[in-house]
Amino acid sequence: MMIPAQRVILHLDLDAFFCSVEELRDPTLRGARFAVGGTPRQRGVVASCSYPARMFGVRSAMPMAQALRACPDLLVIPGHYEAYDEMSQAVMESLRAVSPAVEQVSIDEAFVDITHGFEDAQSLAQRLQADVRDRLGLPCSVGVASNKLVAKIATEVGKASAPRGYPPNAVTIVPPGTEGPFLAPLPVRMLWGVGPKTEERLAQRGVKTIGDLALCPVDELVEMFGQYGRELNARARGSDTSPVVSTHDIKSISQEVTFPRDVADSAMLRGTIRELADTVGRRLRKAGMAATVVKLKLRWADFSTISRQTRLKEAADGDELIGGTALALFARAWKPARPIRLVGVGVSGLVPPVRQLQLWEETSTETPALQRAVDTVRDRFGTYAIRRGSSLRNAPR
Amino acid sequence: MQVTLSPSLLGSCLRDLTAIIPAHPSSPILGSALVTADEQGIWFWSTDLDVSGRFRVDGSVLQSGKAALPARRLADIVRQLPGEDMTLDVGDSKAEVRCGRSRFVMPIMSADDFPVFPSMEHADRVVFPSPALSRLVDGTVFCAGREESRPGLNSVLWELHDETSLMVATDGRRLALMELKLKNPTRLERKFILPPKALNQVVRLAASSEEVTVGLGERFVSFELPNAALYTRELDVSYPVYTTVIPKETRLEMLVNREALMAALRRATIFAMPLTSQIRLVIDVGKMVLHAECPEVGESTEELDVSYEGEAFEIGFNGKYLLDILGHVPGEQVVFKMNAPLKAALVVAEHQEEGENYTCLLMPLRLSE
To answer: Around Cβ A290, how many Cβ atoms within 10 Å?
Structure first.
């Protein structure tokens, strides 16, 4: 891929995304100390926490039990992942309106290559932020730089320097040519690929900031980290050539669930697999694709994990076939009485869907019309508005 | 019971007979052939309860009688016998086949346990020319469904009118309709829904005879020939209303050489996705491009000259279905009559055969945008 000499990359990160969506669902949560995630009894972790809760030291990925110790009156809200998914897609659509090159990194974060836009970065960033806030009611922070690495760090720096206790709503622009000085005072762990171990080894050499790292001779870094040292040096100087890869060209879709308690009941596992397959199918159809490979992932209580897959004879996007295929894989892999911790269903080998049209549509067993009707119901009223009889026992209460 | 007969004549009779027997009979008696020997000659009978047949074999009756024999075992043995005549000797509990210096003994079942054939005594009868019946069946039955999940389509609709006869078969994706003008009036107005298996069988038997006597009973239809008769139950299914899916008017017409298109399709399907056999046809003034592709297999593109004046458009078909249809439509040139990429296409001969109205209908594939 050709990388233009001077790129303009925008990074957008939704502020406390799950919590912001929860506040839209229930406005009384505004200003409250709350977290989205599983309860301590379910071995839950904090998936997202409100800014007031952060004042008490609550952080994402913290075990919920620990979060409650830090902030005893913390409200724990179960996640409404379907709603997050929908809001996330709406945000991604606003980004695609700006540029087709949108790389979604996670549910609440994306890069947009705006090199070929006419608007200057500052006003575009502010316009996008206002659009997401006014139209969708979501706060977000934006960073703009000449590459993905610096743009992402710009967002983080903006967020960190905002007043505490509120959504940051930050916009941070790093003009081209100023990447090095911008990064120099920041701690090395803010760089991609610098984890606690690398950080520690660098610290032993007196390298604490990114600026320190940039001044480190490349040879020395290569000696310490192999070829990776070369990359570290480049990153420290604010150089990153990785392109924005449009995630519209998705390669696979999967969904998995870790049970609050390990499950050995085959009926419940089968029901869960059906539901996961329904979700995967729906996302597949939303992406306008069909799958040729169906995968099943199982993790047992002892953390041993297997992944099984099968190639379909014909590309499919229907829940029935995806679920049925996943269940067939399950029947072969399942060992009765051995409790399962995690189950996942996925599809890959995505191709554009081709469907044999029928003279009489109602003669087919799983009609596209039925599938469409189910999708419509779920789009309007949520995933659980219409369910399979077989998965009713798994219903959230 | 004792008869002598020629293994080769018996062999061909048993081929027709075992074609009726299901692959996995639900009871031993349904896997058997009833043999009867009396002043009517030597007859072999078989049934799957929907379709039944009886077949006469020339031979000498030395002693009359009847019994039920394991049909496939008998057919397997007879096929391996040398040319000289064989003797079939049926006792109380077993049957013996002797031929030259070979001897085979098989257990038998009581003829009384063999299912009773439908009585066609009070049936209306009409004499039907064999070629016409064959034409009806050959032109349509290939489109009949084969999926257990859609039993209503695993059947063939046969309409007998006074001066015409019509047959329709469809699997829900493609449909063939053949209507023939009859030389002799039938003075009948009847509709039947029959299993494709029976009709295929009738065509094989009728090849040896100019006419078939069709018996129209209460719930059964029989096809009688001098040396064989086939009985089939009318299927208890409702046939889909086929008239509503055949477009009355079409906007776009394309004329193409049938053999050339078939050859191009045979090449293209090698690169098509298995099962859907998806072929994309890009049709434009004077030419058509066939395109097929399959991840990991490759792709193919081929251009054909056609007579077409309309707007450029794309339509996708299952290449194998289209090949099937083109293999049945007669003549050098075929006409595609279409309305839109997602609407049924009609495929007909440029010039219909005399006294014949033959239409094939194929639903396209929805191509990805």
So the answer is: 24
Q: Does the CA dihedral A346-A349-A351-A357 come out positive or negative?
A: negative
Q: How confident is the model at residue B8, as a pLDDT?
A: 94
**Cα of A313 to nearest chain B Cα, Å:** 7
Task: Identify residues of B whose CB sits under 8 angstroms from chain A CBs.
Answer: 149-150, 152-153, 170, 172-173, 175, 240, 245, 273-276, 278, 295, 316, 318, 342, 344, 361, 363-369
Query: For B367, which of A292, A354, A360 is closest by C-beta distance?
Result: A354
Question: Under a CB-based contact definition with an 8 Å cutoff, are residues B86 and B78 in contact?
Answer: yes
Whether B335 has a pLDDT exceeding 80, the answer reads yes
Whole-complex ipTM: 0.82
Tell me which chain A residues have a C-beta less than 8 angstroms from the C-beta of B360. Answer: none
Q: Which of A292, A354, A360 sits opposite B368 (nearest CB)?
A: A354
Q: Write out the E strands in A73-192.
A: 75-77, 102-106, 109-113, 140-145, 171-173
- Spatial contact of B143 and B171, defined as CB atoms under 8 Å apart: yes
pLDDT tens per residue across span A361-394? 644 445 567 777 888 787 777 777 787 776 665 5
Asked whether residue A216 is assigned to any structural domain, the reply reads yes
Query: What is the rounded CA–CA span in Å between residue A21 and residue A30?
Result: 11
The shortest C-alpha distance from B147 to chain A (Å) reads: 11
Q: Residue with structure tokens 């100087």?
A: A237
Q: Which residues of A touch B (CB under 8 A)?
A: 288, 292, 313-315, 349, 351-360, 363-365
Range among A9-13, A229-233, B238-242 rated most confident: A9-13
B94 vs A98, residue with greater confidence: B94
What's the structural domain count of chain A?
3
Q: What is the pLDDT of residue A396?
A: 44
Rounded Cα distance between B126 and B186, Å, is 7
A319 shares a domain with A193: no
Range of the domain at A208: 181-236
Query: A364 vs chain B: nearest CA distance in angstroms?
Result: 8
- CATH architecture group of domain B2-113: Roll (3.10)
d(Cα B325, Cα B364) in Å, to the nearest integer?
Answer: 13
Which of B146, B173, B342, B362 best probes binding to A when mutated, by most A CB atoms within 10 angstroms? Answer: B173
DSSP code per residue over A29-59: GTT--EEEE--GGGT-BEEEE-HHHHTTT--
Cα angle: B365, vertex B368, B369; to 5 degrees: 130
Give the residue numbers of A annotated as catalytic, written as ranges: 109
The model's pLDDT over A240-253, given as tens digits with 9 standing for 90+, comes to 888 887 755 667 88
**Cα A113 to Cα A118: distance, rounded to the nearest angstrom:** 12
Asked whether the beta carbons of residue A353 and residue B366 sit closer than 8 angstroms, the reply is: yes
Determine the angle formed by the axes of helices B258-269 and B319-328, rounding to 10 degrees.
150
Q: Angle at CA B315, nearest 5°, toward B157 and A100?
A: 140
- The CATH classification number of B124-243 equals 3.10.150.10
Residue A89 domain-assigned (yes or no): yes
Cα dihedral across residues B366, B245, B329, B193: positive or negative = positive
Residue B230 and residue B202 in contact, taking contact as beta carbons nearer than 8 Å: yes
